[in-house]
Fold:
Amino acid sequence: QEEKKQLTLKVEELERKLETTSAQNIEFLQVIAKREESIHQCQLRLEEKTRECSSLARQLEMAIEDAKRQVEQTRERAASRERAAQSKMLDLETQLSRNKTELTQLRRSKDDAERRYESRLQDLKDRLEQSESTNRSMQNYVQFLKSSYANVF
Structure:
């Protein structure tokens, strides 16, 4: 009976341990369930964030491509403007060169014309002076003739 009593006590003690272990198991199962739910929620949030990141990455790629296109278009416009400016500059330089050449020719023509007119003016002055001299001589001769005729008559 003593042995039975000890065995009964042992069984009771084992049953208490079993109940305690069962209670602990239930608690652990509840903790595991909560953790699994938390993990599931985290996975859902992770998937949502992953989708959001993918969307943002696509938007970023599109924005980068758009920016590259705009930069390329701006470069092309700047290059076109630069070519147009270079062309205009060359045209203006050519026109300036022609104008300088024409100005030089006009100056030469003006100088030649001035020399010719100076020469012609000098000729006319010389002829005028010669004419005046001849005129004076003739007046002197007429004066001489007048005085000669006045003396004769």
